[in-house]
Amino acid sequence: MTTEHPKITEPAAQPLYRLHPLTPVLRGFKYFGAIVAVVSVREVGQLGVQRTLEFLPVVVVAGFVLAYLSWRFTWYRIEGRELHVESGVLFRRSRRVPLERVQAVDIVRPLIGRALGLAELRLEVVGQGATEAPLAYLGDEQAQRLRDRLLALAAGVDEHAPAPEETVLARVPTRDLIVSVLLLGQVVVGLPVLVAVTVGLLIVNVQAFFATLPALAPVAFGIFRTTVQRVLVEYGFTLATSADGLRLRHGLLETRLQTVPPGRVQALRLVQPILWRRRDWARLEIDVAGYGGDEGEQLATRALLPVAPRAICEHLVDLVLGGVDLTRLPRRPVPPRAAWCDPLQWRQLGLALTPHVLVVSRGRLRRVLDIVPLAKVQSVRVVQGPLQRWQRLASVHIDTAGRHLSTEAAHRDRDEVRGLVEELSDLARAERVRRRPVPGT
After folding, report:
1. Cα separation, 318 vs 312, whole angstroms
2. pLDDT 10s digits, 67-96
3. Element containing residue 246 per DSSP (H, E)
4. Most buried of 23, 45, 86, 185, CB within 10 angstroms?
5. Distance between CA 148 and CA 161 in Å, rounded?
6. Number of helices followed by number of strands (H, E) in the chain
7. Is the separation of the CB atoms in 305 and 326 below 8 Å?
8. Phi first, then psi: what are they for 402, rounded to 5°?
9. Which residues pair with 352 in a beta bridge?
10. Where are the domains of the chain?
């Protein structure tokens, strides 16, 4: 008599997926542009225009061949709750992204990609300075489906369930966006000063104008660039909410759809420049762990609402963090001797502490409120400079996993700081325990 043992079946391997077949075309243009940017005018002068034009087709072919090989050796698949991405021609790179560590999922459509129906899927992971395992490029519908599937797996729900419906919370009119950018200090102050200096030099001494032109041109270009870039990045801004988190849509030339799952917000910042107060406008910024990159990338991922009435921004803070009424928080001011350390804005320095959030205020011309959920506090540091020691003051720094926003409760009484650090640590610990998911739920 023989005993039959049950067969052990291995889990079926998940299918491999390639990027969109048109990916080499878009990447080829990018490689070609990068090579052209590297070739300077001086090098063109050394080679000659004729030799440069002869060399150009070789560069184009090399760029597209490299793009094709990169596409040919790149694939991805989903195993359990991990995204696997394999890439590399000569040197293979294997990346595994645990979906529970995903802080945000973005769909980015560059200008040429929109014409070709392509989009890039970016996963922002905590602890990474750059986007982890970007999938560039996918078809528009494929990117949408993959985003919904990854968010569902990250939340632990059925990956085949239909995408949740969204509710629009706010839209930014184009006129308000342009006016708000023109009312910023760099435009209102920097541009008139630049014009006055230019006109003065032209009147007094034309030769002096041409002598200072190399110094004035970068300043003018910097003002123009930052102003236009902000309008292009935040154009058509729409904020919505759904079961999978916050959804942000914006961009003119390059469009971006950001999705921030629930509980991923590290901090919020409410900003109100002085020239916005007459219209009662404010700006709400968000800090999410994983977002990094250059200045342009940070600008594209920082705003939760570029400009809106202050009451709407305060309502969004309450909606995102839950139970935070900024108009009813008990404010703790700094002692009058803090004027020795910060004579211009010491009256605006203050903080409010509740069992759930820490709110720090500062700024005379540019009023700022930093709102930090206590569950996201990573560490609390005390810093004391020589002038602060003389006045028996100290500053408390609150660190989170975010990269954009830093929170500092400046120039607090030294004796208050000791109790404040203990109170912050205890409340943060209790809040993390309260928010910790219960096993089996």
Report:
1. 10
2. 899 899 999 999 888 999 998 888 888 888
3. strand 245-250
4. 23
5. 9
6. 13, 21
7. no
8. -75, 165
9. 359
10. 17-167, 174-234, 263-275+282-296+308-434
